[in-house]
Amino acid sequence: MAPIQLTAVVTPQPGKAQRFLDLFKVCSEYVQANEPQVYRYEIHEGIPELNGGKLQFVVLEGYENQEALDKHMKAPPVVALLKAIEKEKLTETQLIMTKPSSGVKARI
């Protein structure tokens, strides 16, 4: 099966950004230690003054296949993050699932 990439645009509710970042850090550490089939798991902070004053994050994730994504979504820190987002109303999030199409991948 083809690789799966996920992009999420995350807008934290006022006063909730640090809580979201703390939970994401725990997920990131778990991925690094336990999920070799996840080849990308990073967060980028938007620049509010260039984005209409909004604080936003862009999360970029890459999985070898659907099985890797399914396993990741069941990982304890990810489950905790998703529950906190819902229960504590931490963020508004738009998810976009993608597959490679065209363009320049990297020049690094």
UniProtKB/TrEMBL annotation:
**A UniProt-annotated Pfam family:** ABM
Give the species this sequence originates from.
Answer: Fusarium albosuccineum
Q: Where is the ABM domain?
A: 4-98
InterPro entries, sorted:
ABM_dom, Dimeric_a/b-barrel
Which residues, if any, are the signal sequence?
A: none
Q: What is the name of the protein in this document?
A: ABM domain-containing protein
Say which domain of life the source belongs to: Eukaryota
